[in-house]
Amino acid sequence: MSFAAEERHAAHLLAILEDGRHSVADNRHLYEDADPALVHFLFSWLRARYPAQHSASEGVLGRIVELCGASAKVSRMAKAGQDDPLVEWFEENYSYKELDRDAFISVIVAKLEG
């Protein structure tokens, strides 16, 4: 089964925080409407891919902080998503660092939608 639309949506959510071309404030409603596990997955992947020594980490991680500061709901969702059984499954079988953006999105969307 194809989840192309869901993958595009998840990729857009990731891009909001990763590339800085989108306004976090203008797009926070997209995060507020997302699945808490997806929010947790996206934050975790970004944190793993942009550690403190990465040249873009300040911007990427700063946008996560900005989003959570602008929306307590998103902050709560990320914490709630941490307890989702799919997160446990993913973390037992994969490493956030080992999957590039497309592979990561494909794996998590298939699990969340499947």
Q: Helices, strands, pairings?
A:
Blueprint: H1 4-18, H2 24-32, H3 36-49, H4 57-70, H5 72-81, H6 85-93, H7 101-113
Helix pairs in contact: 1-3, 1-7, 3-5, 3-7, 4-5
Main beta sheet strand tally, sense and closure: none
Q: Span from first to last CA?
A: 9 Å
Structural class: mainly alpha
Beta-strand level of the residues, as a percent range? under 5%
Order of helices and strands: HHHHHHH
* Count of domain modules: 1
Fraction of residues in helices?
Answer: over 70%
What is the general shape? Answer: globular
Write down how many β-strands occur, each being a DSSP E stretch of 2 or more residues.
0
Subunit organisation of the chains: single chain
Uncertain segments: none
Q: Tell me the Rg in angstroms.
A: 13 Å
Q: How confident overall, as mean pLDDT?
A: 94
Number of continuous helical runs? 7
Offer a concise description of the structure.
The protein is mostly helical. Helices cover 74% and strands 0% of the residues. It has one domain.
Model description:
This protein is mostly helical. The chain has one domain. The protein has helices at 4-18, 24-32, 36-49, 57-70, 72-81, 85-93, 101-113. α3 (36-49) packs antiparallel against α7.
